[in-house]
């Protein structure tokens, strides 16, 4: 995310930069972007996440508009943002909502604006991610609740980001995790640009 913002957004910026995060959660990314003076907006379907995010921004003296808003129609005018990011959020949407949201991202981006998409990738046999829990155990069943993740395959990405988009950077990143067990995870890091 940091690398994307610097290499694709700030490098070409000629004025103020408007930034939208889809599914911002409790806002780890929204504590980075206001610090480098981006004009920040986040949306999330979880009221709790929005509350926590706003409380943390206030605690840290940072400014961002964080809205309780599910994916689908986005409540912003056309061409509002220089960049939009999604870190592991859109993949939870059902296919129809995903399609609508991708069209909306295209609408709210300025011409030439960038969309950074970071989502899990298929092609690894492992359990994806094990989450450490407070009691020292791990929860490898977390993702079993979401058997139908969208956007995990190269073909799903190519289908969704055809007309209207170019992709200046596509990375598939594999990591081997040794704790708590040996596991391999894979993610897409996709930079798309509105044409
Ligand atoms: C794995 S968290 C990622 C949070 C944040 N992007 C980050 O990098 O830490 C996924 C987030 O997506 C949100 N989310 C899932 N489905 C959503 C939907 N249909 N509309 C809006 N937000 C959604 C969840 O509430 C959650 O905060």
Describe this structure in words.
This protein has helices at 2-9, 47-59, 95-108, 154-160; strands spanning 18-22, 39-44, 65-68, 81-87, 109-120, 131-132, 138-139, 165-177, 183-194. By secondary structure, the protein is an alpha/beta fold. Mean pLDDT is 88; it is low at 126-130. It starts with a helix and ends with a strand. The strands form two sheets. A seven-stranded mixed β-sheet has the order 3-2-1-4-5-9-8. A two-stranded antiparallel ribbon has the order 6-7. It is built from four helices and nine strands; from the N terminus they run H-E-E-H-E-E-H-E-E-E-H-E-E. It has one domain: 3-Layer(aba) Sandwich (Rossmann fold). S-adenosylmethionine is lined by residues 23-25, 28-29, 44-46, 49, 70-71, 87-89, 92-93.
Biggest sheet record: 7 strands, mixed
Shape, per Cα inertia axes: globular
Query: From the alpha-carbon coordinates, what is the Rg to the nearest angstrom?
Result: 17 Å
Annotated CATH topology:
Rossmann fold
Give the termini distance in whole angstroms.
Answer: 21 Å
Low-confidence stretches: 126-130
């Amino acid at each position: 995310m940091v690398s994307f913002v610097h290499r694709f957004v700030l490098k070409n910026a000629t004025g103020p930069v408007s930034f939208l995060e889809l599914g911002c959660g409790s806002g780890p990314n929204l504590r980075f972007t206001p610090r480098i003076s981006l004009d920040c907006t986040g949306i999330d379907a979880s009221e709790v996440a929005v509350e926590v995010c706003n409380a943390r921004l206030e605690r840290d003296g940072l400014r961002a508009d964080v809205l309780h808003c599910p994916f689908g129609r986005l409540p912003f005018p056309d061409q509002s943002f220089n960049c939009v990011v999604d870190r592991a959020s859109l993949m939870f949407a059902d296919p129809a909502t995903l399609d609508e949201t991708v069209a909306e991202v295209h609408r709210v981006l300025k011409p030439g604006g960038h969309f950074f998409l970071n989502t899990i990738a298929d092609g690894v046999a492992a359990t994806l991610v094990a989450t450490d829990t407070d009691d020292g155990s791990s929860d490898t069943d977390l993702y079993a609740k979401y058997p139908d993740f969208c956007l995990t395959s190269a073909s799903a990405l190519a289908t969704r980001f055809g007309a209207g988009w170019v992709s200046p950077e596509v990375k598939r990143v594999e990591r081997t995790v040794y704790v708590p067990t040996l596991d391999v995870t894979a993610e897409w890091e996709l930079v798309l640009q509105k044409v």
